[in-house]
Structure of Tyrosine--tRNA ligase:
Amino acid sequence: MKNFIEEVTWRGMLHDVMPGTEEHLMEQMRVAYVGIDPTADSLHIGHLVGVMLLKHFQLSGHKPLALVGGATGMIGDPSGKSNERNLLDEPTLRHNQEAIKGQLSRFLDFTSDAANAAELVNNYDWMKNFSFLDFIRDVGKHITVNYMMAKDSVKKRLSSEAAEGMSFTEFTYQLVQGYDFLHLYREKHCTLQMGGSDQWGNITTGTELVRRIASGKAYALTCPLITKADGTKFGKSEGGNIWLDSARTSPYKFYQYWLNTSDVDAEKYIKIFTFLSKEEIEVLTEKHKEAPHLRLLQKRLAEETTVMVHSAEDLENAIKASNILFGNSTSDDLKQLDEATFLDVFDGVPQAEISRNEIEAGINIVDVLNEKTGFLKSNGEARRALTANSISLNREKVTEEFILSSKDLINNQFVLLQSGKKNYFVVRVV
């Protein structure tokens, strides 16, 4: 049995913990759960902290439960939000649940015969037949309105600064989440709930229900909400969330997100989002401080997270794709990129379209550079650049005699033009 509290403390993953939790966990194998919002069919990296908590819990010899909030997903958690969320129907929730379980399986052992094998549970399964009258009689009477109003998540939404008030539906959220803890305490011997620091109020409502209704003792643990040193939101890029599903966020973009973290953030994130040991991280951090320009922390962080979420092959492809812009890549490297990765790599690069018929007939490079794309301003400029040997097509230098044809297409669809070292232009064949 490893000391779970000690592990998450040095990793910077502990915000609040109820007194006695460490001793409770060191006595024997325990069961803990983390709630996961099922409003999409993929997790994003904002969910990763909770998933890492569950993984460390399992590695410490305990049993993790991942609770997909099918019922609470139908209500909406007021914590830290200014508006209610859209409510989901049951088929959508079931689809999302299966997709999320597939992603969690990369982290948690659900299938072994070990006593601490992980389980996936859905609170919709025990809430769907719970009538409103039964709920307010059996659960609601044990928690006072005064107790519920004292929670920070409720106070913020009811404060004079809040643009909108709070519906009764959202107000009851903490009771429903609290009942989840009570149910898992009774059915799964679960004695610990973990979550983000904004969940403390909801979690302690659960420990209170366990105490008042089941005369039991339950515990709460929260991790800090992950922030970025520059004040921007963690887990977001210009295109939105960084998802774990490669169809939503390509492995290349995923890799780039971690690679582009600041030194301050990389030093923090490598403890939270990898399973590297304390000794490995300390050595790596010292090396990084000696030569920060090499970005050793960022590279290792990006490598570890990409392999963990995707695969070693995806990491290799992401590194190749990164080298297209920043390294000595070749035409063959370019042609190995799939369409999604190619578009990700050259996101924001100017583009023009040329018809497939024209490409099949063959187009002189001077016409490609000026008349067909506008990449260069005149035929004269195009000829001067070609004479100066500063034009590349798909990473290979070309001369004024070059004719662009179908055999030059990347993925039978793209051509990459380059003037000098940094001026790129994408031709899309339509």
Q: What stands out?
A: The mean pLDDT is 90.
